Amino acid sequence: MKIDLNSDLGEGFGPWTMGDDTAMLDVVTSANIACGGHASDPETMFTALRQATARGVVIGAHPGYADREGFGRRVIPMERGEIGRMVAAQVGSLQGVAALAAAEVRYVKPHGALGNLAADDRAVAEAIVTAVAALPGKLAILAISGTELELAARMAGLEVFSEIFADRAYMPNGRLVPRSRGGAVLYDADAAAERLVRFLDTGRMPTIEGEPIALAAQSICVHGDTAGALAMAQTIRARLEKAGVSVAAFLNGEME
Predict the structure, then answer these.
(1) How far apart are CA 243 and CA 198, in angstroms?
(2) How far apart are alpha carbons 220 and 28 in whole angstroms?
């Protein structure tokens, strides 16, 4: 069995840093790099791109609402076309910096409130997919399984991969428990690792209500800004490999 381990990185800007990207890149196999919306700037992008490439970590763009004060976790009312242009501008920016860093951007994973909205809002999902499809590089989409974003990407003929979250609790409908609710974020690395091992064995994820649900996944996300994120990622990788799971990127080879 093979599974990817991804994390949201490059989420600092200027002198301000978020998490330990350098250490996390020694653990994960895919990196979702912020591209100037909710976080990041050209220098932060360049550093993350160079470090990821040096380690053979597959790179994805992580666009979000241009809301640094809210870290992209608040919905900003926008028209469909505006969302598409925002996504294209951010992903295109990362692609431009990647060209200077001798790196490749392989996929797109929407951040925070934008990703959550795209899970249930078809128009938002289609706006994101339209933007991604218009960009060079035949970019793939990384999304939660069973969402409007996954469906829109498949209908557009894009390559799609599904993810689950190591550090988040789930609702019975397969969506993430809102961060405003108690128990939404998981901090116990050992418990999170055991939950993932059971999921990979059964294909079912426990929910906050107790009843497990079926989910599909080719990747596991550990949020880089969660307290103890690095230790959690290290624990998860070690536990998965001990269970005989191969931790490897969901995308292989070079872009066409």
Answers:
(1) 10
(2) 10
Sign of torsion over alpha carbons 56, 62, 68, 69: negative
Residue 94 CA, chain-centre distance (Å), reads 15
SS3 3: strand
Residues 6+ apart with CB under 8 A from 16: none
Instruction: Write out the DSSP string of 91-105.
Output: HHHHHHHHHHTT---
Count of C-beta atoms within a 10 Å radius of residue 81? 11
Q: In whole angstroms, what separates CA 223 from the centre of its chain?
A: 8
**Cα 247 to Cα 245: distance, rounded to the nearest angstrom:** 6
Residue 253 has pLDDT above 70, yes or no: no
Q: Domain 2-247 falls in which CATH fold?
A: TIM Barrel (3.20.20)
What is the model's pLDDT at position 255?
Answer: 45
Q: Where are the domains of the chain?
A: 2-247
Per-residue confidence (pLDDT) for residue 227, from 0 to 100:
79
Decide if 48 contacts 33 (C-beta within 8 A): yes
Buried b (16+ CB within 10 A) or exposed e, 100-120: ebebbbbbbbbbbbbbbbbbe
pTM of the model: 0.94
| Mean of pLDDT values over 138-142 | 98
Average pLDDT over residues 190-203: 96
Kindly give the residue spans of alpha helices, DSSP state H, lying in 65-188.
80-100, 112-120, 122-134, 148-155
- Residue 3 is predicted with a pLDDT of 98
Query: Above 80 in pLDDT, residue 92?
Result: yes
Q: List pLDDT tens digits, range 222-237.
A: 988 777 999 999 999 9
In this structure, what DSSP letter does residue 223 have? Answer: -
